Amino acid sequence: MSLPIESVQPQFTKTLREQNTVVVCATTGSGKSTQLPLWATEHGKVLVIEPRRIACTSLAEYVSTQSESKLGEKVGFAIRFEGKFSEDSQVIYATPGVALRWFFDNKLADFTVVMLDEFHERRWDMDLLLALLKQAQSHKLIVTSATLNSQKLATYLDAQVIESGGVLYPVAEYFHAPEPRAMPHKEQLEQRVFSACQEALINCDGDILVFLPGKAEIQACLSKVKSLPAIAIGLYSGCSPKAQQLALAAHKERRIILATNVAETSLTIPNVTCVIDSGLERRTHLRLGKTVLGLDAIGKDSAKQRLGRAGRTQAGICIRLYGQHAPLIDATPPEIQRGSLTELVLASGCATEGVSSLHFIDPLPERSVEVATQQLRKLEAIDARGIATELGKQLYPLPIDFEFGYVISKLNSNALRQAAIDLFSVLSVPARVYQLPNDAERQTRLNTLFPYGSDIEVAISVVRGGAEDLVDITPDALQEAQQFSAHLRDHFSLPSLDKAASFNHDNLLLELASLIPNWVYINKNNRRHGFNNGQSEVVLSNHTRICENAEAVLVLNTFSLAGKGTKQAKTLAMYNAALTKKQLLKIGIGNEVLHAAYVDDNVLWGEFITFYGEEALSQTTKPLNTPQDTISALVMLILNNTLFIGLANQIELKISYTQLFYQYHSRDISLPTVEGFLHQKLNILGIESYEDIALIDEQDLQFDEVESWELDPFIDRFPLFWSIPELSMSVNYNFKGKRIELTYIRGARKDAPKKWELPAWSGFKIRYRRASKVVDVI
Prior knowledge:
Keywords: ATP-binding, Helicase, Hydrolase, Nucleotide-binding. The chain is α/β, with parallel strands linked by helices. It is built from 24 helices and 31 strands. 34% of the residues lie in helices and 23% in strands. The longest helix has 18 residues, at 647-664.
């Protein structure tokens, strides 16, 4: 059977031969991902970059079968920890992470043609690869998209667009919602999916494809629909090879395939005649400088893609679990605009002269770049120009979060380094490697075997093959964690997993906390049972061994759900270990603040509080010896009228009048606070100890920015306070608007003042305010 993409083969071949770049716009199922790479091999080896691992492996297997060769010979693939290809392979499908590492190694010199497939998904790593390839200008470049808004892409690349429309049979839409504008939602999702599947089994032939936001929803719906007369299959990143094969190959029996967005554009599933669209997806957001995961309604572009899956081979139906006129966004924003850019900035620094040297198809958010740059500079991963340091170049290729790599490289002993590798290996697996037991008997045994009560000791033991009978293991996830461990142990020249060294649990905790202080959260003792690190708040997950009354916790993994507001997010602390305030003080975490000062027996004393995350860790009293502490304490004593009684009020009034003077003369000059002025003045006077205060008097601390001969007449003309019998008022001036407002302070007088009782404010409109009542002064 011919594929729709075959109609553009002559145009594609001619364009790629004559130009270095071509944009191909073709619907999912048209054959672009399988045929374009084969056509391009006339120019040399082809690298096809696929956003998803499952697409890499399935496409490579399909194309190798069509080419009548074994997988890994003519056609191969490369994903994390796995690859099947050879030097003779003409087409290699790879994930963006693998492609980026190859780019760092040799700028993809082994390939003549690079194809970025499914670019419309707009992942950050695909955007980066496109910018790198555009800058390098060393490959023939093919960029494909399943959407028709490709002109922006063509303009960016100065490329020709080739469109292959494909064939789409009629698809009837039905909306299951209480009212036309009802948005997608998660309430009773399993039951609504079950009802829609029942309807689909009656009203259409063929297989049913259900779009759900994630693995958890898929598993919940699987248990619900398994009673229906069809094979139920879950399809998501990390699902078993058996489930993949069952979903991607035609089958005699009817199937209900419950899938994430992986089935939206990346994969072609045969024989689908009905799509059930939950209208939901998991989408990243930027909250408080970090990437969090939110449950969101899809955009109209995704809704269109999902519907199209039902009309590939024959007429179909699409059942939407939301209203016909639900106000969906037009398109999902690119990932670079809704997530942390730390990885992108580090990757750019490894491959180029820094992120600023690259021209992206969409400008990077300046604030996100700034936050990422600051974080990477702090960890010594990039230099002032944004170029990766030697440490940064070592960290980025590692298949784990760069902070994890930084910690491993900085730990003081090989035993702790091994423990950290095994711990981070568990944290780097997308699926949950193990779950804590529910039964009391196993919980008791677990607590006996692991007395520290932390998740860290259990996670490390699980990777090393211990505790398997005490926790519920996910075999595939454990295998992947052990692959991480083996790879990292080899990279850092450490013994293999079966020769793992024992380690000191407390030493590991303290070193982790001292290397990345932001991982430490202190108990806020509030009703939400939250822990805070001064930047964000977490609550303990149900899947942790830590008690809510712990003084502090070391949090190594979080799961965040975006809230409705810009700063709202509920973040669950997943892998944790308890810490005490005493341990935090031992490693120097916290900010010591001078809280109060007093003089005793002619010695200046200070009361200091050490804060972390707005919570007090300790309080100490000690004599003040440094000039900085001495000046801060003297300022406190002046402000509370222990020293130079009344001086602080005089200075505050003088600053206020000076500011009013500048306002009158339209001068935009910023003045210090009383506290700031006193700090500055005492520094200028050279105060270093309490004894030095005897060498100065009040006149040395007067605020006199404007000469008195100029300021005093102005004060007489425009006082900030005015009193008449039984009435005191404050005065507010609006010189531009020629308005003055008097505000009641105290006094028994009930009526407003008269103009003759006030200064001669010629040309001003005067009003008097008492509480909420405002009247004109006449």
